[in-house]
Amino acid sequence: MRAYILRRLAQSVLVIWAVTTIMFFMFRVMPADPTAILLERGLSDEARNALLEQWGLTGSLWDQYVAYLGNLLVGDFGSSFLYRKPVWEVLTPLIINTLWIAVPGLLLGAALGAAIGTAVGWARRGGKLERTGIFLATVIRGVPNFVIGIALLTVFSSTLGWFPGFGMGDPGQNVGFARYFTLDFLHHLALPLIAVIIYFMPENLLLMRSGVVENRTEDYIELVRAKGVSQGRVAWHAARNSMLPLITWLFPALAETIAGIVVIEIVFSWPGVGRELVLAVTRQDYPVAQAAFFLLAVMIVLANLAADLVYGKLDPRVVYK
Amino acid sequence: MTSTSLATPENRTASPATMQALATLNDRLAAKPAAHLRVEKLSIAYSTARGPFHAVDDVSFEVKPGTNLGLVGESGCGKSTVIKALIGLQPEGTKVSGQALLDGQEILGLSERALQDVRWTKISLITQSAMNSLDPVYCIGDQICEAIQAHESVSRATAWARAEEMFALVGLPASRLHDFPHQFSGGMRQRTVIAMALALNAGMLLADEPTTALDPIMQSQIMSRIRGIHEHMRRSMILVTHDIAVVAETCENTVVMYAGKVAEKGPTTDVLARPLHPYTMGLQNAFPRLPVKGQPRQALISIPGIVPNLLRPPPGCRFAGRCPFATERCHIEAPAVTAVGAQSAACHYIDRAPEFREAAARPETWRKLGAGA
Ligand SMILES: Nc1ncnc2c1ncn2[C@@H]1O[C@H](COP(=O)(O)OP(=O)(O)O)[C@@H](O)[C@H]1O
Ligand code: SF4
Ligand SMILES: [Mg+2]
Is residue A156 part of a domain? Predict the structure, then answer.
């Protein structure tokens, strides 16, 4: 088990290194000048060269690469070209903002999807619940998630006016850490969070349903029924076994899901790391973009590792070698 | 009758309080009487895309308390269908009619909620395919405890201690209760399923081909284990098998089913020594019999042909297409059930049974038919 985890970690490091390297060279070969933004604000040539030097954009590509990796190893992502601040300082609050919609959104999406999927899978075949459940889930899954976001905005913000449609807090509210504990923040959080849930739920629901449908006719379910336990308990056995395929899908799917969250952040102007990533690329703020991609790669790799380990916890038949 | 006294699992880990609770539970369970089951005119039709499929038609039999009833017949004759209906496990949409009185209580057509109270407390099941009958993600002990705790308000420790005793009863070490199904061999899983069926000392045990999936050595081991337990606990039991030799060794009474109907039934000794129905005679030929001293070993003769399609059951005797003694009448008119003492059979020519028996023992009687068909 320990050997397995160590080997997987080593593989993960390799993957992250590869992603980092690719990102690094991609940004360097793009024919664009990151100082362009600043030039517009009237930057002298001298100042420009000094900046390039400071940003580590002088010297051969190889030298730049080695310097970049060396800095990464000590957790130094460099400074943002635009904000003129260390990347960490720029990203940390944005990461926290993203986690606010991503973590509860994905957890609730998965949990609700699994619960409803179990109910739909356990319902009478061809009955109303089954048909409605599958229909709704399939439709929502087919809708691009910016449409979900815009629909939510149109209905609950523009038309009904129940929720604010923009950003994370009204002006003049608390800033810093204290803001997370205000009603105003929760008010702003609601719509993007709901968007993440709606976006993530259908796939979970459909996977869980097909698992339960498959499992409910298995012999072991018949014996559980024969034992005279409650119906809920019987359904639980089917659900518990259906979680296995769900888990294998769930964690790797996070990669794709993160892309979806980027879109939701943009639609709701949620100041998260995904939105910043897109902005950073268009602004050629390489250090920020590279750091964001690096963090994404780390998250995805860790999610895959977590999937393996959780699967092993849930399925006694799995042996780690 | 202390049904569990022979169980003495090694490595007992339970506390004195648990042992006390276990003793109370054991006494309560041991006090359960063996059940009496009376099945009357049981008919079962599956709903299929091509209309109702009459898998079981007008089946009646009785299981007296503490006795063992053998239910035999080829594959597809409706044995499992009967068993499943008795514990309410028929698929949705299946039409079940007739009566099944378990200690006087009608158990057909109960609601799922009402079934919960009957299942495992009064009637339990040893399934046909123990290989797939256990939930792969729970340890064995948990699955046995689940059955106990669904019906008895005892602590998990007490339920586990009871499970240890059941494991001892079927000859498995208590420590293996922590294992998962995939760590067990087929034989061990079958024992597990038996242990589970005994956990609440239900008055009625339904055993649906409990050994079919196993190799022959394991089969006879498990069968003698079942016989031992039956003798010891004196539960009522229906044992489904297609092996007539197993019935001979295990069951007081026998019901022979053919194509969803009872062909013949009665005390096992009578049915096997003097079968009245040609199908019973044919079945006997198809299984190896223990060699009888002074008689030549008999060759195995299988019955040519297959069980008729019950979407459109044949009008006359259902065995007519394969019966070496069938006449014109057999193809037109369904035979009534005729009793001879405690024994009865559905054949037009019961009075000619001695003559049939002689002919049926000769391989060419059946071969001729096979060639003709
Ligand atoms: N769920 C079902 N739907 C339709 N037909 C079924 C179903 N289950 C069993 N049958 C049919 O009913 C007949 C009796 O089956 P079964 O009771 O399993 O026989 P046995 O246990 O004697 O081998 C078979 O012809 C089988 O194909
Ligand atoms: S009724 Fe006719 S066909 Fe049926 S078993 Fe008797 S002899 Fe054979
Ligand atoms: Mg069967």
Answer: yes
Whose alpha carbon is nearest atom 26 of ligand 1?
Answer: B76
Which of B110, B137, B205 is the mutation pick for testing A, counting most A CBs within 10 A? B137
CATH 3.10.50.30, domain B9-29+126-245, yes or no: no
- The per-residue pLDDT for range A290-303, each reduced to its tens digit, is 888 888 888 888 88
Residue ranges of domains in chain B: 9-29+126-245, 266-289+299-370
Helix (H) or strand (E) holding A176: none
Q: How far is the CA of A242 from the centre of ligand 3 (A)?
A: 27
Using CB distances shorter than 6 Å, the residues near ligand 2 are B 277-278, 317, 319-320, 323, 325-326, 330, 335, 347-349
pLDDT in tens, B24-46: 999 999 999 999 999 999 999 99
Bridge partners (DSSP) listed for residue B62: B38
Q: How many domains does chain A have?
A: 1
**Integer Cα distance of A85 and A73 in angstroms:** 19
- Reading the block at residue A276, the tokens are 């910043």
> Does residue A46 belong to any structural domain of this protein?
no
The CB of B316 under 6 Å from ligand 1? The reply is no
Of all residues in chain B, the one with the smallest CA distance to A223 is: B133
The CA-atom distances, in angstroms, between A190 and each of A164, A193, A205, B129 are 9, 5, 22, 51
CA of B55 to the centre of ligand 1 (A): 6
- A146: domain CATH number? 1.10.3720.10
Inside any domain, residue A62: no
| Residue A287 to residues A14, A23, A299, B247, B274, Cα–Cα distance (Å) | 21, 11, 18, 81, 94
Residue nearest to atom 12 of ligand 1 (CA): B55
Query: Tokens at residue B106, please?
Result: 């009608």
Could you tell me the residue range of the domain that residue A268 belongs to? 87-314
Termini Cα distance of chain B: 56
Q: Comparing C-alpha atoms, which of A105, A102, A100, A103 is closest to residue A198?
A: A105
Q: Nearest residue of A to residue B189 by CA position?
A: A220
Instruction: Spell out the alpha helix ranges (H) of chain A.
Output: 2-29, 36-40, 45-54, 61-73, 87-122, 128-142, 145-152, 183-216, 219-226, 231-267, 273-282, 286-314
Residue B98 has which token pair?
């007739």
Report field, pTM of the whole predicted structure over 0.90: no
**B150–A230 C-beta distance less than 8 A:** yes
Those residues whose beta carbon sits under 5 angstroms from the ion ligand 3 are B 80
* Ligand 1 centroid distance, CA of B259 (Å): 10
Alpha helices in chain B (DSSP H): 16-30, 79-86, 112-118, 140-151, 156-169, 186-198, 216-233, 244-250, 268-273, 278-286, 328-332, 353-360, 363-372
Alpha-carbon gap: A230 to the closest alpha carbon of chain B (Å): 7
Tell me, what DSSP letter sits at residue B335?
P
Q: Is A166 part of any domain?
A: yes
Residue in chain A nearest B85 by alpha carbon:
A226
Task: Kindly report the number of other CB atoms within 10 A of residue A65's CB atom.
Answer: 17
| Of B30, B25, B3, B29, residue with least CA distance to B158 | B25
Residues B98 and B82: their CA atoms lie apart, in Å, by: 12
What is the predicted pLDDT for the residue at B2?
A: 40
Are the CB atoms for A251 and A303 separated by under 8 Å?
yes
Given a cut of 70, the residues of chain A with pLDDT beneath it are: 30-43, 51-52, 54-58, 169-182, 321
The residue among A254, A260, A248 whose CA lies nearest residue A301 is: A254
